[in-house]
Every structure is written in C-alpha cells, then in structure tokens.
Amino acid sequence: MIKTAKTVKGFVAQISRDFGDITFQKGSSEHWSPRTNTITYDSNQPLHDLRYGVLHELAHAKLNHTNYGSDFELLRMESMAWDEAAQIGRRYGISISSSHIQSCLDTYRDWLHRRSACPKCGTHGLQKDPRHYQCFNCRNIWRVSSGRFVRPYRRTHGVTAV
Ligand SMILES: [Zn+2]
Ligand SMILES: [Zn+2]
Q1: Which domain does 50 fall in, by range?
Q2: CA count, 13 A, side-chain hemisphere, 52
Q3: Any domain includes 102
Q4: Which ligand number lies closest to the CA of residue 68?
Q5: How far is the CA of 2 from the centre of ligand 2 (A)?
Q6: How far apart are CA 79 and CA 83, in angstroms?
Q7: 147 part of a folded domain
Q8: Are 83 and 63 a contacting pair, CB within 8 Å?
Q9: Which residues are in the CB-under-5-Å shell of ion ligand 2?
Q10: Is residue 136 part of a domain?
C-alpha cells in the first residue's frame, strides 16, 4: 500500500490531488453529488471502511451514474461501481474484500426484495416505473420511495461498527 493511503487525511489528500475535478468534503455518510461533483465522506469510521466508501463513490462519479430507470438497474450500477472501485483501489494498493462488496450488494438485494413484495398478498411484483410496482397475483399497484445510491452498508458485527 502506498504510504499516503495509511491515514484518513493522507488518503483524502492523495485522491483529491489525483481526481482534481472532484471536491471531497466531510459529512455524515458517503455520497456523491453529480450536481456539485462533490464526494462526501464520514471521517468518523475505521480507515478501511472510509477508503472503501470513498473509492465506491469515486467509481459512481467516474462512471457518471446520475440516474437509473429501475431498481434492477440501480443494483446493476452498484455492482459496476464496486468493480470500478476495486480497479481504482489497486492504484493505491488497496484491495477491497469481496465479502465487503457482497455484503453491500446484499443490502441492496434485501431492500429490493422488500420493495417488490405486494403489500396486499405478499407476492413479488414487477416494477412498472421508478416509483411503482404491480403484483403478478392480485394486480395491485403500489408506490415505492425513489431509490438512492446511498444505502446503509451492512456492518459486520463489532468489526467495522462505528
Ligand atoms: Zn398482490
Ligand atoms: Zn453505490
């Protein structure tokens, strides 16, 4: 691992230099804003989580992930972002563990599973548009909140908890 990646300050300073078009700022969670081209990061977390999170948001930025038409597409973009994050990470000698990636993607899969269940009969439905699902069984249509790229990462007990 390159030396600067060993502290939060050093890591953020290094990637700020390497990705000069993006602004990096402290905040409550990892997030990329396409509007201001700013990556927000939570500095009160273990260094390795911070690095993974920032690399992930950086990947969304590099892939220009601004919006998506369905939950499934969102999940696909999440997966692409992790692939890209892993590639960027290699330049800094940071390898993102596949168990971390899988648990983050599982968070999305669980979320998608919950959203797609019909509130009336529990059968899983099909997404009609970004805000609506329809049940295969009873034809009920329900509204869902808009998805976001930022979802809480599933934290492994004790190990990465803040
Ligand atoms: Zn139903
Ligand atoms: Zn993401």
Answers
A1: 3-116
A2: 19
A3: yes
A4: 2
A5: 25
A6: 7
A7: no
A8: no
A9: 78, 81, 149
A10: no
State phi, psi for 114 to the nearest 5 degrees: -65, -45
**What is the overall mean pLDDT for the chain?**
87
Tokens of 50: 């911070």
Residue type, 106: D
Task: Report how many domains make up the chain.
Answer: 1
Would you say residue 121 lies in a domain? no
User: What CATH number corresponds to the domain at position 95?
Assistant: 1.10.10
Ligand 1 centre distance from Cα of residue 103 (Å): 29
- Give the tens place of pLDDT for each residue, 14-72: 999 999 999 999 998 888 888 999 999 998 989 988 999 999 999 999 999 888 888 88
CB contact at 8 A, 97 and 53? no
In three-state secondary structure terms, 127 is strand
